[in-house]
């Protein structure tokens, strides 16, 4: 039983006890008063009657007539005249008069009154006595009316007191409920400050809770700052602050394997020629300043364009990956012009070679760097600031293909020609936590099912991602209903921009309540960074239905989400660029541990995606990760 209910019952009991006591005391007092008044009435009437009888000079007939006249007034139960020797001389008796009060009331509260007795005389001679007993029914009637009025009045007062007590308890309960909700929010990883009540005791409790929440929040922010330091140490070049070669390659491989992104992209390599000779002629400080200027020029693109990747490959080489078709050569030329204007200020003899390449995004990392190195080698054969580029296809041919694919995607969605693949997420003991289910579409009837990397970029451009995601969720719910396995579906961040998407998704999930409890929805980290309010609203509407919400491809961007603790997430999947190579790099392992500490403080499960190396998996188990997915997990499950 809750504390409020106990207090309420205690107050109710006290009020009822007070009312019952008041009624009992009042009734007893009234009964005593009426009984006393009736006794006095009997005595007074007996004395008056005896005086009247004494004036009859002992005439028996007149005395009998006078007694009868007095009795006939109707208020007497009996009038008895006894002679001086005690013998009965005359008596009048009346039947008991019925009372208007209930019989149980009369039996519970009897009024016992002795008859009034007075002496009758004739001159100085006593000739007998008279006894007068009045009816008690009138007293019971008055006592019942008095009890009814008092009960009604006290009942009304008790009702008002109960209402007042309820309102007072409700006012007291509100800050207690707020404190409970605040504590539960902290458990869920959300930090809420509540208004301080006016009640001194509750005000102290609220102040203590708010202070605790602020302290926990400051600890979380400190962890985020520390995580940022660890990220720089693990992933960044110390001189320029750009991604190191290892991390850039991991980021590039992750970007090439993701579903979202353009069909074609570009890669630009920038090389500062004769780095050793420049160090000798200009000095290391001047060359370091030149390298920092180059890094700043290259980093300007990722800062302005979402999805761009930049890194320092070695002492003299920089790389810039552009998620857009037919822009590599133009970007390389713009970089060359900007650096040609700024680098000579650090000394003479500075020259750059730039190689640019445009390729289909499905190309391997080896091909990307092979083509880019070939263009860079041609540029190095020339003096000055030189740009060479390689284009692997014309924009016109791609545009014609895009129009055809857009039509095919629409037809595939209309015909529900889609299927879900299944990749396991395993825990340390090898148990399947859930299945990742990317969607494939059959773009041509009776044709092969195409992976999302081939058609999703055009679906984003055509604003069809909402329809794609609704189809994927529908297929997942149907599969869960058949085998009862946990499944997760990828949701494109672009779908959140569709004003009706969340409402349609909620309606779809609402009609499959059993399967919804085993459904997970995953969005890329960019959804939390760029569309936090939309992500929050999606979680607010779907989590009460049992749907789990997670972020995939998570990395350094989490540190830039100011209200991550309010997102309502259930789990986070670390990007392959974060976890690859963690077994042989202490700095990367420290960064992963820092992310685990931060995310665990928000009560989130943490998984790693895209793992291939068993050594990396073991290193992540040592970091106490909750689960892993990728080729290693798929191969282990198939054993």
Tell me how many strands there are.
Answer: 20
**What structural category characterises the helix and strand content?**
alpha/beta
Strand content: 15-25%
Average pLDDT, rounded to a whole number, is 84
Numbering strands along the chain, what is their spatial order in the largest sheet? 11-12-15-16-17-18-19-20
- For the terminal residues, how far apart are their CA atoms? 53 Å
Topology:
Elements: H1 3-54, H2 60-71, E1 76-83, E2 88-93, H3 103-108, E3 116-122, E4 125-134, H4 137-187, H5 200-235, H6 245-257, E5 264-272, H7 275-282, H8 284-304, E6 309-312, E7 317-322, H9 328-342, E8 352-360, H10 365-380, E9 385-391, H11 395-414, E10 418-420, E11 423-426, E12 432-436, E13 439-442, E14 449-450, H12 452-461, H13 465-483, E15 487-491, H14 501-510, H15 513-516, E16 519-524, H16 525-530, H17 532-542, E17 548-554, E18 571-574, H18 576-579, H19 586-600, E19 605-608, H20 614-622, E20 627-628, H21 631-638
Parallel strand pairs: 8-9, 12-15, 15-16, 16-17, 17-18, 18-19, 19-20
Antiparallel strand pairs: 1-2, 1-4, 3-4, 5-7, 5-8, 6-7, 10-13, 11-12, 13-14
Plain-language structure description:
The protein is an alpha/beta fold. 54% of the residues lie in helices and 18% in strands. The protein has 21 helices and 20 strands. The strands form 4 sheets. An 8-stranded mixed beta sheet has the order 11-12-15-16-17-18-19-20. A 5-stranded mixed beta sheet has the order 6-7-5-8-9, sandwiched between helices. The chain has a 4-stranded antiparallel beta sheet with strand order 2-1-4-3. Helix 20 (614-622) links the parallel strand 19 and strand 20. Helix 7 (275-282) packs across helix 8. The longest helix is centred in the first third of the chain and has 52 residues, at 3-54. Residues 263-392 form the GGDEF domain. Pfam families: EAL, GGDEF, LapD_MoxY_N. This is LapD/MoxY N-terminal periplasmic domain-containing protein.
